[in-house]
Amino acid sequence: MNITHPATFNDGWVYCDRIPKNHPPATVLDYYTHRYRHSDRATWQTRIETGQILLNNQPIAADTPLKPGQNLSYHRPPWQEPPVPLDITTIHEDNVVLVVNKPSGLPVLPGGNFLQHTLLWQVRQRHPTAAPIHRLGRGTSGIMMIAKTKTARAHLSQQMRQHRFGKTYRALIGPAADLPDQFSITHPIGKIPYPQLGHIYGAKPDGLDAHSDCSVVQRQPEATLLDVTILTGRPHQIRIHLATLGYPLLGDPLYVAGGQPHPNGKAIPGDCGYWLHAHRLSFIHPTGKPMTLTCEPPPCLVT
User: How far, in Å, are 1, 122, 129, 164 from residue 97 at the CA level?
Assistant: First the structure.
């Protein structure tokens, strides 16, 4: 059972930016308005005027022109984070590796309105140098690999880059009598325009290569249960790939048939509701030992 912790205020945070050498001429207000579209121009104007944004540690005016090499910092005051489930259970732990079951609804990394209500923050309360080796979407539950040391992180990250991690997910789509028992999806995935965020990942003919191998676990009149093994790790790959076939994940608020975001929707990738669980993970432990770990799916994803 997921235990959802209530919304609470955090301690605030400082977001730092360094103006790159090739950045086009811009004022402070223009920079934040165009780079961080989660807030409108008027909101950024207010933040600058109230001293929340500093240039080289000094208060500035909104129309101050920026120069390459300057440092901007946005001092975000404490805010109330949304409620999330924080029942993170351990699957395996030793001196260098931690593998956990991430509940659906818990973000892996800080971003947006989430800082302390994230997997990384919670794990670092016990292991300050911990670092996730891969990511799961906020709405995706299941097995997560975390390195506890820099050496382990380098070893495991290399395996990820070389596609030597075995990752199998359990997914739920609608009725799919026309799908074969086993099939592969290789549609490229890339960035596409999305007004809410500037861009989003979706099916794109000239995108990056992506490969998913799927097998039907169970067919029911109202749903189809799949195992999906991904050979690449593109953002939201399973959600996009199944949608390209015309079978978006049940409950997905973002992706529709064709692997594109809903044309009239306002959902973002972190919105929950879809059914996807990281079920099995195979890797070589930093000691050289091959390991395969599994994480029991939620009841609706069990035959």
Answer: 25, 16, 11, 17
